[in-house]
Amino acid sequence: MSTELTKLEAPQATALAEILDSGMTSDDIELPVTKIPSGGGLMWEIPNGTPEPDYVKELVGVVIADYAYDTFFTESYNDDPDARPQAIWVAGQQVYCTPEAVKAGIIEGEPTAAQPLNQFGTKGAGKAIDNKWRIFLAQPDNMFPLQVNISVMSRKPWSTFRLHNLVGKQPYSKIVELSLTKATNAAGTDYAKLVPTLKGDVPADQIEAFATYAEQVKSLTTYAVPPQPEADGEGVAAVKEAFEAEDVKADSIPF
User: Fold this and answer.
1) What is the helix (H) or strand (E) element at residue 19, kind and residue range?
2) From its phi and psi, is residue 180 left (phi > 0), alpha (psi between -120 and 50) or beta?
3) pTM score, two decimals?
4) How far apart, in whole angstroms, are the C-alpha atoms of residue 198 and residue 67?
5) Which residues contact 88 (CB under 8 A, 6 or more apart)?
6) Whole-angstrom distance, CA of residue 151 vs CA of residue 89
């Protein structure tokens, strides 16, 4: 499996370079995205450019990037893929924060670990801040990496796996399989849980090709920070002070 995977990957770097050299940027390219299915489903849904996606039991590839992705919503978003969080942290560092988030208790500029709302019990028995993860997987026959969004309940299995199998190892040297198993939470609800497995080593003469590929798609795998919201040109910090002084009403914020 490892030989087949890596031999298919190397030519993609050349083809990808031709696309990027044509003038296309990360704004023109939308990566294929999959996520942990809801309701305990055990198949990954893979977009393929048609109305009917593909469904597979396992994802196999080389991890070319991954990072923690934490979000805070002031209201329930009901798993709406288009809903925008009011605060975002990438790799534990805050990159986005709105006045609504500040009013709700988010500390502007502080990392996830320092947020009071990142404690259990701040949203029912759980956390008000959702601790998720993003993995970018280079796969056979795919020009662009697959973005795999890992849910709160699967973050620990992934972080434990990467600590033992990827951290401290030569980058792009391991082949990983991502599958799913069914679990049940304390309320008796079934959900899908990530099962990461180490499938083998990338041949030494192919690692450089993966490194080249990872660098080429870095603009696609790096989180694009949205424009920081401002209120009347004063920014979040000024709005925070106004909230604390009770001079600003929620319905007066222009977004």
Assistant:
1) helix 2-21
2) beta
3) 0.81
4) 19
5) 69, 70, 71, 72, 94, 95, 96, 97, 225, 226
6) 15
Radius of gyration, alpha carbons of the chain = 20
The residues, ordered by sequence, that sit 6+ positions from 243 with a Cβ below 8 Å of its Cβ are 99, 102, 103
Tokens 């499938």 found at = 199
Number of H helices, E strands in the chain: 6, 10
Confidence band of 1 (pLDDT split at 50, 70, 90): very low
Task: Classify residue 21 by burial, with Cβ atoms within 10 Å: 0-12, 13-18, 19+.
Answer: exposed
C-beta separation of 166 from 178 below 8 A? no
User: What is the distance between the alpha carbons of residues 237 and 230, in angstroms, rounded to a whole number?
Assistant: 9
Backbone angles phi, psi at 144, to 5 degrees: -110, 155
Render pLDDT for 114-165 as a digit per residue (tens, 0 to 9). Answer: 999 999 999 988 899 999 999 999 987 788 899 999 999 999 999 999 999 9
56-99 residue pLDDT tens: 999 999 999 999 999 999 886 655 667 789 999 999 999 999 99
Distance CA(157)–CA(193), nearest Å, equals 8
Q: Who contacts 107 (Cβ-Cβ below 8 Å, separation ≥6)?
A: 114, 115, 116
Place of tokens 């924060």: 97
Place of tokens 């396992």: 58
Which one, of 152, 189, 188, 179, lies nearest residue 42 by Cα?
179
Structure tokens at 92: 């534990």
DSSP string, 138-169: E-TT-SSPEEEEEPHHHHHHHHHHHHHHTTTS
Largest CA distance in the chain: 64
pLDDT at site 246: 38
